[in-house]
Amino acid sequence: MIEYITRAEFVMLMVKIVMIFGGVMGALAYLTWLERKMMARIQMRPGPTRVGPYGLLQPIADGLKFLFKEDVIPTQANKFLYIAAPVISLIPALLSFSVIPFGPNLQVTDLNVGLLFIFAITSLGVYGIVLGGWASNSKYPLMGAMRSSAQMISYELSLTLSVIGVLMIANTLSLSQIVASQNSTWFGVIPRWNIFLQPIAFIVYVISAIAETNRLPFDLAESEQELVAGWHTEYSSLKFAMFMLSEYANMITVSALATIMFLGGWSGPMFGPDWLQMILPTVWFVLKISLFIFAYVLIRSTVPRFRYDQLMRFGWKVLLPLSLANIVVTSFVVAIS
Amino acid sequence: MIEILFFFFAALAIGAAINVLVQKHVLYGALSLILMLTAVSALFILLRADFLAVIQVIVYAGAIMVLFVFVIMLLNLPVDEDGPDRLRWLKFLGIPLGLFFLFLVVATLSNVEGGAAAQARITGDAEAIGRSLFTDYLLPFEITSLLILIALMGAVVFAKKDL
């Protein structure tokens, strides 16, 4: 795993890191715009229109506003953990992009345990929420943090178990090889994607992913009507922005994982001249991720929030048995064929 | 380069482990334990055992310690002042047990074969670990799973008095 690399490889690596990091940060900023605009249209409002055409400069205005706002730290807060929490939540969220293959060659590092690496890193992200809620030393954030940790532990199980079927079919933990295993077609037309082989796993994964990222209808950690804003009630300025960025980054990560495992990653029709063939896989990948993001925003603006006991019952009594049954059935089929 | 990384993470692990012992604040103790586990997982990566490293983070730092932190927050314990010392006997037992542990470590280390030949044989990927778990170490593996099952059932019995 640790090898010495040449100068040219080092430069290539740096270029890749800058491209992926820049692309992801830009996407994060414009996700806020997309979400506000889409939700507004669904609720028959115009949404942001003032800053730039169609409000397209709104994310930049928001960023500047975050930068210049006063940074309030509650007097009774645990200062060290209060400041550390947004960082703990943002770093894992961004770190997981280092193993996601955005294209055949556009991947920072191809770990042979890439999938597990992402699960490990994202499971550390919960500490940001938990510590942020605790360090604020206020009752609503604490309630939000407690709910969120219970929810994330429950749904992490079914999230992890739902992908085991895919792993048994692909026979690898490396993300780029999982993509490569879905690159062929059936009868020359239908792509050999895992969504057709593992439909139940796909449904379980998508539902648990929404719960993992604390989005509506599973956003009990910050449910405005009961908890003001949940675990980030006391946060303001850039620290709040970091929490928000990590939520959006996690959204992209789970969508990218869903694309890689169930929709064939960057695979898609290839045509045109060489330069087009270079960027087409990344275009397909981004399009497939956007599909999930659209679904996320649609679900957020149309489905009401679960009650806490419903959420727990659904996770433990529906999703977990479903994913376990899926593993048993898949392993039988894999063993026979 | 690797040596620098090794000493950095080893020092981090030991420092965090000592902090777990001396720390009066329960939550800081738990956080130090997480730091220690993560540092040890970095040491696994330096040994080319990436699978073990990742599992270490998923199981210990990501799952078990979250529950610890959850319980600490739920109880919201006050900072531990020097209360009645219920572990009085541990002081006397601790010294011989510590010496015995030191002896075990030294005895194990003196039997380890070192060098490049040993390093080349180490394979820490999922396939090698799975293969040795289900062939050479099948019995210990099954016994451990039975133990975990018993613990699970015990927890259920404790939580629900009337089933």
Q: Report the structural category of chain B.
A: mainly alpha
Summing up helix and strand content along with how strands pair, one would put the structural category of chain A as mainly alpha
Total number of helices of chain B: 7
Portion in beta strands of chain A: under 5%
How many helical stretches of chain A?
Answer: 13
Oligomer: heterodimer
Strand order of the largest sheet of chain A: 1-2
Rounded mean pLDDT score of chain B: 82
Give the radius of gyration of chain A.
21 Å
Name the helix and strand elements of chain A from N-terminus to C-terminus, one letter apiece: HHHHHHHEEHHHHHH
What is the averaged pLDDT score of chain A? 83
For CATH, the homologous superfamily of the largest domain in chain B is named as NADH-ubiquinone/plastoquinone oxidoreductase chain 6, subunit NuoJ
Helix content of chain B: over 70%
Uncertain spans of chain A: none
Query: CA-to-CA gap between the ends of chain B?
Result: 58 Å
Kindly give the count of domains of chain A: 1
Number of strands of chain A: 2
Helix content of chain A: 55-70%
Written description of the protein model:
The complex is a heterodimer of chains A (337) and B (163). By secondary structure, chain A is mostly helical. Chain A has one domain. Chain A is built from 13 helices and 2 strands, in the order αααααααββαααααα. Chain A has helices at 7-42, 58-68, 79-95, 114-135, 139-162, 164-170, 175-180, 194-197, 199-212, 224-227, 237-262, 274-302, 308-336; strands spanning 185-186, 190-191. A two-stranded antiparallel ribbon of chain A has the order 1-2. In chain A, α3 runs antiparallel to α4, α6 runs parallel beside α13 and α9 (199-212) packs antiparallel against α11 (237-262). The two termini of chain A are 34 Å apart. Chain B has helices at residues 2-22, 26-46, 50-75, 88-111, 115-121, 126-134, 138-159. The longest helix of chain B is centred in the middle third of the chain and has 26 residues, at 50-75. Chain B has 2 domains: 1-78, Four Helix Bundle (Hemerythrin (Met), subunit A) (Up-down Bundle), CATH 1.20.120.1200; 125-163. Chain B is mostly helical and 163 residues long. Chains A and B meet through α4 and α5 of A and α2 and α3 of B.
